[in-house]
Amino acid sequence: MQTDTAPLHVALVIGSNRHGRFGPVVADWLLDRLRDRDDLVPEIVDVAETDLPMTMAPSPETTAALASVTPKLASADAFVVLTPEYNHSYPAGLKNLIDWHFTEWQAKPVALVSYGGISGGLRAVEHLRQVFAELHAVTVRDTVSFHNAGGSFADGRPKDPSGPDAAAKTMLDQLVWWGRVLREGRAVRPYGG
């Protein structure tokens, strides 16, 4: 049996849209990890650059906003979702992006990267696992988490990169495994969940 070794198309979802957000700093570091690999081709989906309404009502503006983001999610083989932790969960803008889509997530793997204060965003990660399970997506076991994120970075890079780099490698290795298996599975037997 021949396996599919073509690179996976990965949508890196930046999940914060707050003014002064720290997400782009973590995203830049993460993009370097993604681009260092021959088995992943990243594309950014930034919640701050989508203009999806909070009400689920169709309109010309909604159609235009969806046209800018939905094709990126639909064509992705896998996802890396980067989230801060707000009030013990993930941001409303990220939830809105997730809720506007359904089949785009199905039978695809999701890796989770978080940042925050003492908890490092891990409570947001656990909430996202429940949401993605409902959407028939598979979250990979290992994550990358930045505790006290603002103090963990200097000049856009982790002060001590050894832990985050090792965690990212483990997480991305799992994402590639799941991404290939699920891509092959969808090709042989389209998902009808």
How does this model look, in words?
With 193 residues, this protein is an alpha/beta fold. Helices cover 42% and strands 20% of the residues. The protein contains six helices and eight strands, in the order βαβαβαβαββαββα. It is globular, with a radius of gyration of 16 Å. The two termini are 26 Å apart. The model has no long low-confidence stretch (mean pLDDT 94).
In short:
With 193 residues, the chain is of the alpha/beta class. It has six helices and eight strands, in the order βαβαβαβαββαββα.
Question: Keyphrases for this structure?
Answer:
193 residues; alpha/beta; two-stranded antiparallel ribbon; 6 helices; 8 strands; globular
The structural class is alpha/beta
Tally of helical segments: 6
Give the low-pLDDT segments.
none
What sort of overall outline do the alpha carbons produce when their principal axes are compared? globular
How does the major sheet shape up? Answer: 6 strands, parallel
The count of strands amounts to: 8
Rounded mean pLDDT is 94
Radius of gyration: 16 Å
- The run of helices and strands is EHEHEHEHEEHEEH
Helicity level? 40-55%
| Beta-strand residue percentage | 15-25%
Distance between the termini: 26 Å
List the topology elements:
Blueprint: E1 8-14, H1 23-35, E2 40-46, H2 60-75, E3 78-84, H3 92-99, E4 109-116, H4 122-134, E5 138-139, E6 144-147, H5 149-152, E7 153-154, E8 157-158, H6 162-188
